[in-house]
């Protein structure tokens, strides 16, 4: 009887020593598998990863803990980064820059707002007036426009087609080096649609303006939204000096005197008469005709 008791005591002591040894191993090694296997119930770890109120599950199981430690010892120490997986569970195939949870939480990306990380172009004025552009860009932006490119509206307003503003920006900054960013939602006042845009060039805020466009039915809203964008672009480009002559009263008067003419024309359907402007090299478009 004494021999049996001594044997059981030695066996229990050996199991306890082995348990403490395995605990020291698992506490010094990062093994995601062990973390997933062990959960805590009433302050003590249990195997299975789920909480329970059963009294039997709250008792500490040395056998299960030893089995988990043996599994870890047989596979060898593997950190989450060595396996190419961060603690956040996102795999990095190159195993160089593991993505951490705090990095994702600190990101300002929101697809609904249209910005990424710290570039909140819907609200920021980043880069405004920090330095002039290089001389090559300035020469392109402020170059005098050719008189052959200028158009005139029937009411006598001189303008440069918006596509030519885009071409000038592309020559100055390159395609992709500039863009228009919405600064708010569309607004409707009667039959006029408007929206505010900001012009950004080479990552710098340049100007902000509200574009507007008239529409006549819901089927033309898509076209009206494009008109808003183009109108805002023209207004923003004034701050870059593009086609600045068109806002110079002296230039406008001289251009009209040399290249334009105002005449009485008749509406082909209504029969009404009206004085309208045109270029001397152009004719009036339908429904207006000169009789």
From TrEMBL:
<dbReference type="GO" id="GO:0000725">
    <property type="term" value="P:recombinational repair"/>
</dbReference>
<keyword id="KW-0227">DNA damage</keyword>
<keyword id="KW-0496">Mitochondrion</keyword>
<feature type="region of interest" description="Disordered">
    <location>
        <begin position="69"/>
        <end position="97"/>
    </location>
</feature>
<keyword id="KW-0234">DNA repair</keyword>
<feature type="region of interest" description="Disordered">
    <location>
        <begin position="41"/>
        <end position="60"/>
    </location>
</feature>
<keyword id="KW-0809">Transit peptide</keyword>
<dbReference type="GO" id="GO:0000262">
    <property type="term" value="C:mitochondrial chromosome"/>
</dbReference>
<dbReference type="GO" id="GO:0036297">
    <property type="term" value="P:interstrand cross-link repair"/>
</dbReference>
<dbReference type="GO" id="GO:0003697">
    <property type="term" value="F:single-stranded DNA binding"/>
</dbReference>
<dbReference type="Pfam" id="PF06420">
    <property type="entry name" value="Mgm101p"/>
</dbReference>
<dbReference type="InterPro" id="IPR009446">
    <property type="entry name" value="Mgm101"/>
</dbReference>
<keyword id="KW-1135">Mitochondrion nucleoid</keyword>
<comment type="similarity">
    <text>Belongs to the MGM101 family.</text>
</comment>
<keyword id="KW-0238">DNA-binding</keyword>
<protein>
    <recommendedName>
        <fullName>Mitochondrial genome maintenance protein MGM101</fullName>
    </recommendedName>
</protein>
């Amino acid at each position: 009887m004494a021999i049996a008791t001594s044997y059981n005591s030695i066996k229990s002591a050996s199991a306890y020593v082995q348990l403490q040894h395995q605990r020291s191993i698992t506490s010094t090694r990062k093994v995601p598998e062990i973390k997933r296997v062990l959960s805590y119930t009433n302050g003590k770890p249990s195997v299975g990863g789920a909480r329970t109120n059963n009294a039997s599950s709250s008792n500490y199981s040395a056998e299960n803990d030893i089995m988990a430690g043996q599994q870890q010892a047989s596979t060898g120490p593997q950190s989450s980064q060595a396996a190419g997986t961060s603690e956040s569970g996102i795999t990095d195939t190159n195993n160089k820059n593991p993505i951490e949870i705090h990095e994702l939480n600190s990101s300002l990306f929101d697809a609904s707002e249209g910005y990424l990380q710290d570039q909140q172009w819907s609200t920021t004025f980043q880069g405004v007036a920090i330095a002039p552009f290089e001389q090559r860009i300035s020469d392109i932006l402020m170059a005098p426009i050719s008189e052959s490119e200028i158009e005139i509206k029937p009411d006598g307003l001189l303008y440069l087609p918006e596509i030519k503003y885009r071409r000038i920006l592309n020559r100055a900054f390159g395609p992709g080096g500039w863009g228009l960013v919405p600064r708010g939602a569309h607004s409707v006042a009667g039959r006029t649609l408007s929206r505010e845009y900001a012009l950004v060039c080479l990552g710098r805020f340049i100007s902000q303006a509200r574009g507007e466009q008239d529409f006549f039915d819901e089927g033309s809203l898509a076209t009206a939204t494009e008109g808003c964008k183009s109108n805002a672009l023209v207004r923003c480009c004034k701050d870059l000096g593009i086609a600045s002559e068109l806002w110079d009263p002296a230039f406008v008067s001289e251009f009209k005197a040399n290249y334009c003419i105002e005449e009485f024309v008749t509406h082909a359907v209504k029969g009404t008469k009206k004085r309208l402007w045109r270029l001397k090299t152009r004719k009036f478009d339908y429904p207006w005709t000169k009789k």
